UniProtKB/TrEMBL annotation:
SUPFAM superfamilies: P-loop containing nucleoside triphosphate hydrolases, Restriction endonuclease-like
EC number: 3.1.-.-, 5.6.2.4
InterPro entries (alphabetical): AddA (IPR014152), DNA_helicase_UvrD-like_C (IPR014017), DNA_helicase_UvrD/REP (IPR000212), P-loop_NTPase (IPR027417), PDDEXK-like_dom_sf (IPR011604), Restrct_endonuc-II-like (IPR011335), UvrD-like_ATP-bd (IPR014016)
Protein name from the UniProt record: ATP-dependent helicase/nuclease subunit A
Amino acid sequence: MNQIPLKPENERFTDEQWQAIFDQGDNLLVSASAGSGKTTVLVRRVIEKLKMGVNLDELLIVTFTEAAAREMKERIQEALQEAVNTESDPIRQQHFTKQLVLLPTANISTLHAFCLTVIRRYYYLIDIDPVFRMLTDETETILMKEDVWDELREAFYAENREEFFRLTMNFSNDRSDDGLTNLVFSLYEFARANPDPEEWLTKLSESYRLENGLADSDLYKTQLRPLILADMHQCVQLYEEMVQLAQEEGLEKMYDQVSGEKGQIQVIYEHLLQDQIPEAYSGLEALTFTTFKSSRKAELKERSAEVKELRDRAKKIIQQLGKNYFPVSPEQMEELTQKAYPLVKEMTKVTKAFMNGFSQRKREKGLLDFNDLEHFALQILTKKTDDTWLPSEASDHYRKQFKEVMVDEYQDVNQLQEAILYWLREPNETNGNMFMVGDVKQSIYSFRLADPSLFIQKYEAFSKTEGGRRIVLAENFRSRKEVLSFTNLVFEQIMDPVVGQISYDDAAKLVLGFPDFPETEQFEPEILIYEKEQEETTIELPVDDILEDKTEGELFMTGLKIRQLIDEKFMIYDKKMKKNRPIEYRDIVLLTPTKKNNLTILEIFKTFDIPLEMNDAQNYFQATEIRTMVSLLQLIDNPYQDIPLASVLRSPIVGLIEPELARIRLADRSHTYYEAVLAYQAEHTDELADKLNHFGEQLEIWRELARRSSITDLLWSIYYQTGYLEYVAGLPAGAQRQANLYALVDRAKSYEKSSFRGLYQFVRFIEKMQEKDKDLAEPVLASVDNAVRVMTIHASKGLEFPVVFLLDMTKQFNLQDLRKRYAFEEKLGAGIRYMYPDTRVLYDTLPYQAIKLAKQNKLLSEEMRKLYVGLTRAEQKLFIVGSYKNKEETLKIWSEVANQTSLVLEPSTRLKGKGSLMNWIGYSLMRHPKMKEYAEDTTVHNQLGQSESRFSITWMKQQDIVENRQSLASETKKELESVKVDQTPLQESLKARLAYSYPYKASTQTTSYQSVSEIKRLFEDPDDTSDSKLVWENNEKRRYNQQFRYTQDTLAEPKFLQKSQKISAASIGTATHYLLQLLPLEMPTSDSIRSLLEELVAKRLVDEKVAKKIDLSGILWFYQTDLGKRLVQHSELVKREQPFSMLLSADQVFDQYPNEDDELLIHGIVDGYIEFPEFIELYDFKTDYISNGENQAEIEKIVQKYQGQLNLYKKALSEALDKPVTNVYLILLGAKKIINLNK
């Protein structure tokens, strides 16, 4: 240990923090409790290292997230800049300046990022291509895995080996072999968290041999035996206590009963101590619990109840003992475990084959995933000689380079990452250079295969100065003493090495570090409990006030409490302002175990007018708009799918109602729903058939588009054709829904950048994501400035909030993983359940038993640590929300611990399979003196807990919530009615503002772009024949909007709202122009025109129904006219469908326009013109319907309608080509007339 400088008297750091900053010469583990300022300590340690002459590139600083790395760099930069500004010594100042230059390239990053640096530098040591791409897209990863596995599985099936068939049968069902797929994928991922996955997999089968019997196996001796003996020892102690209590006169029968049972249990215990497992099993099988013989005497009732309570606890232990450890006889356990040996060997072989196949596929494609980075970096840092691992030249280089290796959030490191860090640090532990900081009580990332046991091992070893030293930062600078004492009260009773994996001793307890909070009574933690069971009442509740489930009840309680805090201006202390102020929405956070109820939170909090900021409003794939789009994509891929088809038909895209769906099914009851749709179309001609016909035609268009275009184009086509993007914008949370649909397009783009293509693969990917209960993150909208935040406990780690609501605390622990047919553990290996082929009954093998129990303990330990993280996010006020059947049930559950004597609750209490975080809290409170206020009828014989801890509990029924809501609404109304304001100044101000006229208003309201199609009606007025000035006469029949832009008076009804698709004149005109554009400039015939049209229909460029409406005779007539023949004759001079743009003064387009200097851009498309050397002839086709081609008045009206438009074309052409336009032909195909507008 080096000499630590004396801490100045005015230094704000604690003695422990000061030691953590300056101590060196050994490996150091800093156990930093929540709110203890670990990041500040880490940054200061870096700065002090630099002051001692170390350079930044001689430090490796590993963070858990990229955000943490950025924050670390920013803090170091601020500290360095301050050092440069304040340092008077020019040499030291130059040194600090150099560090600022080194900072951008300093090794301050996640371990993955550092591994990438190692690989790019030393790739040649492991023979990989330095030109690789990171496999970061989950879509590509999943699909590539599936492809490799499909090929591999087919190869294994082709080998026709009994071992593989048995393995498949053991983990699959009669519907599919997905169980084997899930096993292989899970085992592969788990193995890769190990430094040597192949070796770890190879050793898995060793624990199944049992060559010397059950009692001699390592798993039994190290895992099961200690747990069994601990339970039996507890049971014996309970019976000794019962015998003592039953010795009282009058309890002779009870004494005989419990004494007899104690003797049996003592014998079983002795057998287990001597490893006589068959005898112990026989004893347990023979053990029976007869009816309890209690005393009827009033004076002995209390003593009888005590004995009965102890006996019930002992019975539960014995029952769990049989269930957990002896589900079958020892002989049968040995037999089925040995029978499982070849299955585990085959499982290992298949998983290795997949691992190698997937690795080879990635190499072929030049891809690396994040786990590859760590494995390849470890390969680079090591070399193997005679089965011994030695440092490579790369390891030697980094060990010489790095004066210290600093690791933040060390509790979340896994075995593989630990191995990498070993080859980077100083190997001589007497001169260690590892600085590790973290808090094992906040290790909540087991789903990322974090291994908190690494921290715990060093925590225990370093306390004895074995291999390093331990420093504990216990002072909490975040929270009030009420939050800290409550947290200590709970965790000193529930956390120990058995559950929680570490003792919550005096070193682990939170100590108040920020004493500046004002003293007040109002900050005691509050527990809010919704009573699910409703009382019978004569009061009839409004339908809107009836709560559907416990979640709604909990959320209404929470909403009421938040409104109360806001409305009553609850005062909190502002650390920045250093004074009290009223609470704001931004001071509050809702922490949830999962995102499952987020959508319900949004809906309920709207009723309270409480603004929310929520990054994940709901599961992405569960969003209505995404479900609809996914169903439509599934339908386009394969229409013979009943559920997606019904979903789309029922959606706004088609808009059928349930009776219509039933009518369709009646058309064909025995086949698929798609065939029923086809049958209905064939048999009916009603409105429903029209809808189905229209949708069927559109579906075929999309199916064709999916075959020849990208998924991105397909999605945009769907959005455009259906108007669905605009439709969802009008729904609640419309902006989020639109963002979700845009995100689906982005996901499709990402997918198509991978090596996979096609709609089928994309749909398959989405289905796999849904099957595995995975999700895509919702796109995040802009945050709300003053809003209650909603996030998961995981997302809140590292953050702090003045007021915290922990929601859904009575949610049962998720132990789904324990119900699978396999279980994995880092040190114990893999356990499987064995299925007897004849009976197809599954049994636990010995390794499965041991690993399942270890895993259960780990899962519950992590739940406990999640609770710790949740409680310690609160700075000042803490609310814990849950629900029970009623108050009586609450107290009944909690009072199970009333007679437990030890401070730490019994493991059997904490390890309950149907437990919850709230139960743990309730157990911890039950023995507190304050519980007398809530549980008057419950006798607590051993009151424990901190007397200074304060809390309150509130139970609320549905009727209470309704009354509180009504009272809240009534008070709000009274407050609004009582407010009297002199509105005269406001009215005068408003009048002045409304009377103000902006001098350049016209310019701000004038479009800079105008299409000819929008302004063509300008020229329809029969009274205006002028072509010299383009003025719109203001009359009521034809008007421009007040923003100086010509628009259509009405918008077309969106297609998704149209009952049937009508063929518009515009559609016919567009198709006719398209046909004329593509028609070769040679003398056409009726057959050639029809042939071209059929080709356009076949290519889906022209709708078949529209094609039937095109007047082909008019086209044929035109080419027989002089003008038509001239086009054919001078085909090389003809230009067709030519776009143009021109600038016009705004006052030429808009009458009474005030600003002469303003211009706007006119854009249009000319049907065609013939450009002769000296002049131009312009022509334009029109398909307007004319009832009588000889009616001069009707012809004149048509001419007047288009004359101004063609004058614009004439002007544009003449100016662009610098030639006169001598003839302007208006070709009326319907009337078979050509009119020269220049004559």
